[in-house]
Amino acid sequence: MPLGCRRGWRAAERLVGELRERMAVMDRAHREELAARDVVIAGQADRIAQLERRLGRDSPSSSSARRRNAGGAGGT
Questions:
Q1: I need a surface site. Which of 2, 17, 29, 58 has the fewest CB within 10 A?
Q2: Which spans in 1-76 are helix H?
Q3: How far is Cα 47 from Cα 26, in angstroms, rounded to an integer?
Q4: What is the dihedral of CA 21, 24, 26, 28, to 10 degrees?
Q5: What CA–CA distance (Å, rounded) separates 65 from 62?
Q6: Tens place of pLDDT for every residue, the chain, 76 residues?
Q7: How far apart are CA 43 and CA 31, in angstroms?
């Protein structure tokens, strides 16, 4: 193989290695970003569950109070 071709192959192999390293760095950063989003989403899911439980506890008394208020207001 001529010397110029060997140099070209070495340069191509070096560039491919650099590209692989950069892709690995980007992949790690992407995975970290996704993990951070997962934490946020889990927190939001917990908050939604808390609000749903609270709504379930408050709902019967609140709805009966609304019915009493609506009935009394309509009767006058």
A1: 2
A2: 3-75
A3: 32
A4: -140
A5: 5
A6: 566 688 889 999 999 999 999 999 999 999 999 999 999 999 999 999 999 999 998 876 655 555 555 555 554 4
A7: 19
| CA–CA distance, 8 with 43 (Å, rounded to integer) | 53
Residue written as token pair 């408050």: 58
| Six-digit token string for 10 | 């070495």
Q: Which residue has the tokens 């008394």?
A: 61
Q: What is the DSSP string of 50-62?
A: HHHHHHHHHHHHH
Record the tokens describing residue 21, joined without a space: 């390293």
Q: How far apart are CA 25 and CA 17, in angstroms?
A: 13
Instruction: Name residues whose C-beta falls within 8 Å of residue 9's C-beta, 6 or more positions apart in sequence.
Output: 1
